[in-house]
Amino acid sequence: MIKHIKLPLIIMLLLTTIAGWAQHKPESAGKLVDGNFVLIVDLGWNTKDQLTFSKLYDVDSITVKHLFSKDFDYFGASKSWKLEFLGTNLVRLSTKLQAGDASGSLSRNQIISETIEETNRKAQAITYPLEAVFGSNYFTDAETFTYENGQATFFLRGFKDARKVQIAGSFNSWSTMSTPLTRHNDGWRVRLELPPGKHTYKFIVDGKWLPDPSNRQKEEDGHFHFNSVVFCPNYVFLLNAFPQAKKVVLSGSFNGWNERKLRMVKTEKGWQLPVYVKDGTYTYKFIVDGNWINDPANPNLRADGNGNENSVIAFGDTFNFLLKGFDNAREIKIAGSFNEWNPNELFMTKTKKGWEFSYHLAAGLYEYKLIVDGQWMPDPTNPLYVGHNEFKNSFFVFKPNFTFRYKASTEVKEVRVTGSFNNWDEEGYPLQLVEYEWILPYFLHPGRHTYKLIVNGQWILDPANQLWEENQYGTGNSVIWIDKL
Amino acid sequence: MPTERKLIALLLLLLWSFQQFLGAGNDKKTAAVHSTGSLNKKLPVENNDFIYKALGDFQSLTIPLKRAGKLILIDAMIDSVAGNLIFDTGSAGLVLNSIYFRSTRRSPLLESGGITGAVAGVTKYYINQMQLSDVFYRNFEADMTDLGHLERARNIKILGFFGLSVLEDFEVVLDLRNNLLELHRIDKKGKRINNLLAAPKFDVLLPMRNVSNVMFIEGEIGGKELLFCLDTGAESNVLSNRLPDKVLNTVSVSRRSTLWGVGSQKVDVFHGQMNNFSVGKHALQQMPTLITSLSAMAHSFGISLDGMLGCDFFESGIFYIDQRNNKLGIEFYKTRIE
After folding, report:
1. Closest to B108 (Cβ–Cβ): which among A103, A463, A470?
2. Interface of A with B in 53-72 (CB under 8 A)
3. pTM above the 0.95 mark?
4. pLDDT mean across residues, chain A
5. Residues 436-465, chain A, touching B (beta carbon < 8 A)
6. Burial zone of B239 (CB within 10 Å; 0-12 exposed, 13-18 middle, 19+ buried)
7. Quick check: ipTM above 0.95?
8. A99 at interface of B, judged by CB pairs closer than 8 A
9. pLDDT in tens, A45-69
C-alpha cells in the first residue's frame, strides 16, 4: 500500500517543486506592494540566477552575498532591506519606495534615455552598415532589377495611378525624399550608382511603404514588416559546360557548403550565377545533377586535408608588404591584427631587393610586427607606429576613405588623432607632416564618429570640421558621418 | 457604568477624529498628486510664442515614417541640411540639434565652455525654409539643443525634434503599424476639408487637454482615473512613483536601475508592465512601463501628471489627433504584435 502511494506522492512533490521554482525566477521576482519594492527570492538559485538577480534589480554584491550564504543577521541591522521568511528556501526582501518630496527626480531627457535603454535591452538595434559575406538575388520578374558597371536599375511594374513613387534604402540613409522614380509606360524606374554588396530597400508609393513585390528576398524590418534585400554582384561564376544538365548548384565555403540554395541559371554555353562575395579567399565546387566537380576553368586548387581538392578563389585587393635589406636573415614572418597575430602563418619571400609578401585584405587599419629569425620587431621601414617599447606596433591603413588634416606651422611639433573609432585611446594615431600639412589617411566604417586632434599634447576640436557635439568635459568633440561603404 | 460608557464614547470620538485626520491627510496627498476629472474644465488659453504656418498644395497627405528603435522619424530638409526629425508629441514646438545649426564657431583650443559647454548667442537659429515631406514652413526661429546623446544611442543623423504645434493646421493621424503619418487640412471647426475620405471609425473618442502645446488624456489603472501626457519622444510608457498603492500594486517589476537625478539625488527607476491599464474603457493588457519620479517633469509643465504614454502606447492602434477640438480618437489594432 505504502509503495503504491509513494510514486504519485513523489510526482506531486516534484511537480510542486518545479511549479514553485518556475514561479520564482529572477526575471519575475519584483513587484510594488503598498509603497514597498518587493523581491521574492529563492535562496536555492544557482550562481547564474544570483548574478541575474543582482544585475536586474541593482542589488549590491554585499547584500547578495549575505542573502545567499543565509547570513540573515546582516538584514537585522540593514537600513535598506527588510527580510521575511515565506518558506524553507523562499524569502521576501523589501525596501521602501523613495517617493517623498525629499527624494530626487529625473529630467525628461533622463527619462527618455532610460526608455531608449529599455528598448535596446529588448531588441538588438539594427546594425549599420550592412555587411554580408555572400549573396545572390531572387527576383520573380527579371526586368525589375539589373546591375551593370556599378549602375543599379530598379523597376516597379504597374501603379499607373500613383502620383509619386520614391525608393528609400540603406544606400540613401533611408531618405524618403531624395530618390524619386520616373514614370514609364508600364511602371516606375530609377537608376542609381551603387557599390557591390548587400542593400535593403522599400518603395514609397504616394507616401505608403511598399516592399518590392517582385523581390522574394526579404528580411524583417523590426517594425512589423519586411525590407527587400538586393545584392549588387561583383563576380559571375561561370560553367561553360554541361548544357544538357538538368540542375547545377554552386556550393562553397562562402555559404557553408549549402547544397541547394545557389542554383545556377542556364545560358547558351552552359551555366552562370552573378553573386556578391566579400573580400577574402574561398573554396568552392559545382554540383552538376548531383555530381560534385571542381571549376574546369580555374586552375587554382587547395587541398581540404581529407585527400580532396577544391577550387579556390580570392576577392578584393592585395596589400604588398615590401622590406628592403635584411640580407642575412634566414626567415621573416608577419603577424598582425589581420591574422589574429598568428606567428606561424604568413612567411615573406626573399627577393633580390629584400623581402616581400602579398595578402588579400578588406579596407581598414591594421597593426603588425615582423618576426625576423624568431625575433619580434616593428617594421623599421614604416614610419607609422603606435605604442612604446615592447608594445610598439607598426600600422598601415588599407583603402582609406577619410583624411584627418591639420595645418602645419613652426609651433606645431606633433599631431595625433583619437576618437570613438579607437575607443578614445589616449595616445591615438600620429599624423605625418607632408609639405605644409599634417595628414593621416584613415578608414572609417559607415556611421557616426566623434574625435579630437591632439596638437602638441593638447586635445582640440578639429578646426576644419564645423560639426561638434557637447562632451562631459564641456570642451566638445568633433563629429563626422561616413555615409557609404 | 455611565463612566465606562463615557469613556468608550470618548475613545470612539478620539478614534473617529484620528481617522478624519488621517483621511484629510490622504485627501490632501491625492489632491496634490492627481488632477483627475479636470479635462473638461475651462482652462486659460495658452499663448504660443509662434504659430507654425504650414504651406503645401494638398488637402490630405501621407508621410512615410521611419523608426530608430521605437522613435518616430520624418525626413526633413532644413535650409540646406538634410536629415531626420523626431516626431515628439512631448515637446512644444521645433527644437534643432545644435551640432548642425551653430552659426558661430567655437575656438578649437577652448578648454571649457562652462557647465553646458554652450557658447553664448547660439541658442536660437533662424530658418529660411523647412520641408517635411511635401509640407513647407518659412522664415521662423527655432530653439537649439545638443542631441549628440540621441545620435549616439541610435547611430542616425537627427536634425532635431518637433511637437504637435508644428502640425496644428491639420488633423494628424498616426498609424505606427504601417509607419504612416496622415495630415488632413481642417476648417475652423476642425473638420476635414477633404470630403472624399471616409470618416474614421474610432473605438474610443477621448477629450484632450492642451498644456503648453503638449496633449494630456485620462487613463485608468486599477479603477483610478489618472492624467497622462502623450509623449512619442519616450519609447516606453512612464508612471509616477507617487501614485496610490492600489495603482502601483497592479504593476509587475522586472528590473530596477538607479540614476542620479536632478539635484544630484539618487532616483530609482523600475521597469515593468502595467497589467490593469485602460483608456475610454478599452483595456490594454501588459503595456511596458517605467516607474519613477515625475516631479521634475510636472514642475516644468506646471501641472501634476501621473504618467507618460510613449511609443509603446501609440503602437496599439491608429490615433486621430484633433487639436482644434482637443479630441483624440483611437482605432485599436485588432491583433496585437509583440
Report:
1. A463
2. 56-58
3. no
4. 88
5. 447-448, 450, 458, 460-463
6. buried
7. no
8. yes
9. 999 999 999 999 999 889 999 999 9
